[in-house]
Automatic annotation (TrEMBL), chain A:
Species assigned in the record: Micromonospora radicis
Domain ABC transporter span(s) in chain numbering: 24-261
Alphabetical keyword list: ATP-binding, Nucleotide-binding, Transport
GO molecular function terms listed in the Swiss-Prot or TrEMBL record: ATP binding; ATP hydrolysis activity
Similarity comment: Belongs to the ABC transporter superfamily.
Keyword Nucleotide-binding: yes
Annotated GO biological process: transmembrane transport
Name this polypeptide is given: ABC transporter ATP-binding protein
Keyword ATP-binding: yes
Automatic annotation (TrEMBL), chain B:
Name of the protein: ABC transporter ATP-binding protein
A single Gene Ontology CC term: plasma membrane
Family: Belongs to the ABC transporter superfamily.
Record field: transmembrane: none
SUPFAM superfamilies the UniProt entry points to: P-loop containing nucleoside triphosphate hydrolases (SSF52540)
Organism (species): Micromonospora radicis
InterPro entries for this protein: AAA+_ATPase (IPR003593), ABC_Ni/Peptide_Import (IPR050388), ABC_transporter-like_ATP-bd (IPR003439), P-loop_NTPase (IPR027417)
Annotated keywords: ATP-binding, Cell inner membrane, Cell membrane, Membrane, Nucleotide-binding, Translocase, Transport
Location in the cell: Cell membrane
ABC transporter domain residues: 5-256
Domain of life from the UniProt record: Bacteria
Membrane topology: Peripheral membrane protein
Length: 273, 263
């Protein structure tokens, strides 16, 4: 029996990476023309427990396809993916289902992630019914408190929430599962800067308090640098550069990374501070 | 030097079923030819309403209560006055966020440019239409204007599509261009190119640009002046460097503080 207050019971060796992607290739075939598009092209990466890793790149670079394949949520592709020690190519359906709650995804559009016909409370009730033991560690009101939402929000429907509130609800739903890996795919792209700052701070805090690892997908280098320790730069399906943020952003080696950095808005402002 | 665009005391209200909602509250703004003003604010601050008021594209239930908008000394908008149909598309060009929506998906770029030119330039010849269409796309730094002219919007990349849309906005040689979040949907590297293009157009053609954006950093790179909006008001308005380096208002300071630090 798990203690009610224990945020993070561990079942496997803590030093094992939560996710290992080895030489992943994902291709999409156009059904009418038969053309094959290689969305992810021989990508490898590894995420240690509690680590914060970002994948940056522009639209179409393959960053979302990579994240979805790596978490067993999208097209599988070829290559070896080990999620919490299990190989996704040999894992059985039941085992995969057991693994699912360990990986929680926060998407860009929070309103698209929430059922418009369900109040926040009833959405949480549904999650609890699916995973009664895993979710019993915290009450609804306290859970919302963790993402700095008032208990009144429980009775709201998604359309009654602002973008920032809806994203906090999504984060709360992820948190409820006590995941070991949180995948955040452009979690603040549709939000105003002040709301973005709050959501980023919240993600950081949750990572620190639960020990969950974070895989962040973003096109925003400043957001990545403020939240992640390590970054992989994707371009046309390939990781062209990877390393600690401080190294990649301060001394970029690849031409494309330099181009991305140069295109970051705010050069004039930063140069004067 | 005289102002190209003057907005003075503009107050705009939406009539809703329940009650009235003030969208703009005594907004003042000035813009000279050859200048870029960035109108910056978060969602719901009124920046788009301001942009749309200038070109007379407010919704039907929205009314100008007080104040005026003048373009080159002529009053175009005031309570009960709307002369924007004389300037929209001719003296004032518009570029919106989603280029695939500002362009007609059923028409080639060539046809759309021709339509705008014929509508706004009296007695223009077929040869002149062709010449100016090619010229404007070349101004957009499009390397193969003929290919773009012969393309439908969906056949172009996002960046090319937005450049074609900007071309459509400036082909009539407007004095003022209104751009509303027109780089928001683009990748950063493409955004940089579009922003540089705007700077060149303003410098070369001497147009005035009203650049609406939620991105304070983008505005700081591009704009000469910045107006910060919040809740329908311009809370701070001045020289871009001054607003960013010595913000006078608490709201501007908060906005700047919310930007992720880069170090």
């Amino acid at each position: 029996m798990r203690g009610a207050g224990a945020p993070h019971p561990r079942t496997s060796e803590p030093e094992n990476p939560v996710l290992v992607v080895g030489d992943l290739v994902v291709e999409h075939r156009n059904r009418s023309t038969g053309e094959v598009f290689r969305a992810v092209d021989h990508v490898s990466l590894s995420i240690a427990p509690g680590a914060s890793v970002a994948v940056v790149g522009e639209s179409g670079s393959g960053k979302t396809t990579l994240a979805m394949a790596a978490t067993g949520l999208g097209a599988r592709g070829t290559g070896d993916i080990r999620l919490l020690g299990h190989s996704l190519s040999t894992i059985g359906r039941r085992e995969l289902r057991r693994l699912r709650p360990e990986v929680q995804v926060v998407f860009q559009d929070p309103h698209g992630s929430l059922d418009p016909r369900q109040s926040v409370r009833s959405g949480l009730r549904e999650l609890r019914a699916l995973q009664p033991r895993r979710t019993s560690w915290i009450e609804d009101a306290e859970l919302l408190g963790r993402v700095r939402l008032a208990p009144e929000i429980l009775d709201r429907y998604p359309h009654q929430l602002s973008g920032g509130q809806a994203q906090r609800v999504c984060i709360a739903r992820a948190l409820l599962m006590r995941p070991r890996l949180i995948v955040a795919d452009e979690p603040t792209s549709g939000l105003d800067v002040s709301v973005q700052a709050d959501v980023l701070a919240l993600l950081q805090e949750i990572r620190a308090s639960t020990g969950a690892a974070l895989l962040m997908i973003s096109h925003d280098l400043a957001v990545v640098r403020s939240l992640c320790a390590e970054v992989h730069v994707m371009y046309r399906g390939q990781v062209v550069e990877a390393g600690p943020c401080e190294q990649v952003f301060v001394a970029p080696v690849h031409e494309y990374t330099r181009e991305l950095l140069a295109a970051m808005p705010g050069a004039r402002w930063r140069s004067r501070r | 030097m005289s102002e190209l665009l003057t907005v003075s005391g503009l107050t705009v209200t939406a009539r809703l079923a329940a009650d009235d909602l003030r969208l703009l509250d005594a907004v003042d703004l000035e813009l000279r030819a050859g200048q870029i003003i960035g109108v910056v604010g978060e969602s719901g601050s009124g920046k788009t309403t301001l942009a749309r008021a200038v070109v007379g594209l407010l919704e039907r239930n929205v009314r100008v209560d007080q104040g005026a908008i003048t373009l080159a000394g002529q009053t175009v908008v005031a309570p009960g006055v709307d002369r924007t149909d004389r300037i929209r598309g001719s003296a004032v060009g518009m570029v919106f966020q989603d280029a695939s929506r500002s362009l007609n998906p059923l028409m080639k770029v060539r046809t759309q440019l021709a339509e705008v030119l014929r509508r706004h330039v009296r007695d223009i010849t077929r040869a002149e239409v062709e010449r100016r269409s090619v010229e404007v796309l070349a101004q957009m730094r499009i390397t193969d204007p003929t290919r773009v002219l012969d393309s439908y919007p969906h056949q172009l990349s996002g960046g090319l599509r937005q450049r074609a849309a900007i071309g459509l906005a400036v082909v009539t040689r407007p004095a003022l261009v209104i751009a509303d979040e027109c780089t928001t949907a683009l990748d950063v590297t493409t955004q940089t190119k579009v922003v540089e293009l705007f700077r060149t157009l303003v410098d070369e053609l001497g147009i005035g640009l009203l650049f609406v954006t939620h991105d304070l950093m983008l505005a700081s790179d591009l704009c000469d002046r910045i107006a910060v909006m919040s809740r329908g008001r311009v809370v701070e308005h001045g020289d871009a460097d001054q607003v960013l380096e010595q913000p006078q208002q608490e709201y501007t300071r908060r906005l700047l503080a919310a930007i992720p630090s880069w170090s």
